[in-house]
Design a protein that fits this description.
It is built from 9 helices and 5 strands; from the N terminus they run βαβαβαβαβααααα. By secondary structure, it is an alpha/beta fold. The chain has a 5-stranded parallel β-sheet with strand order 2-1-3-4-5, with helices on both faces. Helix 4 (about 90-100) links the parallel strand 4 (about 85) and strand 5 (about 105-110). Helix 5 crosses helix 9 (about 170-184) and helix 6 (about 125-135) crosses helix 8 (about 150-160). The chain is elongated and about 60 Å long.
Length: about 180
């Protein structure tokens, strides 16, 4: 995993879903950016430092104050950091409103198709995936599971194929879906 420099840009991540916050924070950290995760949009608005360099990743639907309202308040305050809106249930109208309000990007959270890919994994592949995400090497995973390193390599290749992942970062995102799906 990439080391995060204390002077790197700070990404504020506002989402009421703990699993989403944790997985996105981990993913953002892999590219060397600092992350400050917020569960409550009101707390974010109260504690946000406008003078910092970075970006804001904001969930559209949250209890209390919604992401579009937070975006409107940020724009009204003259915040010039880019705001990326996230939603699990986007509509064309919602997307249009976000861009009109000043959002830099509008992204949909992983959907049902991604969950179906995760459901294809065998129990052993799930075990290997959890060790990969924990940062273990193929040899270390092989020792933990009493397998040959070649067998672990095969499971790893299957994981990338089944989860349609081209990188470790994508694999971690899919793993977050697995954890979130098991908790639901």
């Amino acid at each position: 995993m990439t080391n995060v420099h204390p002077q790197s840009p700070l990404v504020h991540l506002i989402d009421d879903d703990q699993a989403v916050r944790e997985s996105l924070a981990l993913l953002i950290g892999t590219v060397g950016l600092r992350v400050q995760a917020w569960a409550d949009p009101q707390a974010f608005l109260a504690g946000f430092d406008r003078s910092g360099i970075g970006a804001i990743v904001l969930d559209v639907r949250m209890p209390g104050i919604g992401g579009l309202t937070v975006l409107d308040r940020l724009v009204a305050q003259g915040v010039d950091q880019p705001v990326i809106m996230l939603t699990g249930h986007g509509t064309v109208e919602m997307c249009r409103r976000a861009f009109k309000a000043g959002a830099a990007e509008f992204l949909e959270k992983p959907d049902q198709a991604a969950r179906e890919r995760v459901a294809q994994l065998s129990e052993r592949e799930r075990e290997v995936l959890s060790f990969i995400v924990a940062g273990l090497t193929n040899k270390e995973i092989a020792r933990e599971l009493a397998l040959s390193p070649r067998t672990v390599e095969t499971h790893r290749a299957n994981l990338f194929a089944k989860l349609e992942s081209d990188s470790l970062a994508q694999l971690i995102r899919r793993y977050a879906l697995l954890v979130d799906g098991d908790a639901a």
